[in-house]
């Protein structure tokens, strides 16, 4: 959870408003849901001490991407007032020395 706390603080520092953390549906979970301007960001947080950022593609495969996408759709169904916002799927990579924020890490089509 410490990695998610750092990721949320990083987003707040960039001017995002955190709407939800650890949102769960039957299909999966989204770590952080945040709004900035006209965008709603569905963020997956990866926190490793030794894994290089290149390892993300293995930790966030198409199946995991699909679960995040389906869960984000469930969230938007519960909050129809947010459907006017542009959705985006981001990854926040947290390691001891830094936080890397990858906007548009994958698309709603599940492509990396």
Beta-strand percentage?
35-45%
- Please state the structural category: alpha+beta
Give the domain tally: 1
Could you give the order of the helices and strands?
A: HEEEHHEE
CATH topology: Trna Endonuclease, Chain: A, domain 1
Characterize the structure shown:
- The chain is α+β, with helices and mostly antiparallel strands and 112 residues long.
- It has one domain (2-106): Trna Endonuclease, Chain: A, domain 1.
- It contains 3 helices and 5 strands; from the N terminus they run αβββααββ.
- The protein has helices at 2-13, 56-59, 62-78, and strands at 17-25, 28-36, 39-47, 86-95, 98-106.
- It has a 5-stranded mixed β-sheet with strand order 1-2-3-4-5.
- A hairpin with a 2-residue loop joins strand 2 (28-36) and strand 3.
- The radius of gyration is 13 Å and the shape is globular.
- The two termini are 25 Å apart.
- The model has no long low-confidence stretch (mean pLDDT 88).
């Amino acid at each position: 959870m410490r990695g998610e706390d750092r990721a949320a603080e990083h987003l707040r520092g960039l001017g995002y408003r955190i709407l939800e953390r650890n949102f769960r549906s039957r299909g999966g979970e989204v770590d952080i849901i945040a709004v900035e301007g006209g965008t709603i960001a569905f963020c997956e947080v990866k926190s490793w001490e030794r894994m290089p950022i290149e390892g993300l593609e293995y930790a966030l495969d198409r199946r995991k991407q699909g679960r995040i996408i389906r869960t984000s759709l469930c969230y938007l169904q519960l909050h129809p007032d947010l459907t006017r916002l542009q959705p985006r799927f981001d990854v926040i990579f947290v390691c001891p020395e830094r936080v890397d924020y990858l906007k548009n890490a994958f698309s709603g089509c599940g492509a990396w």
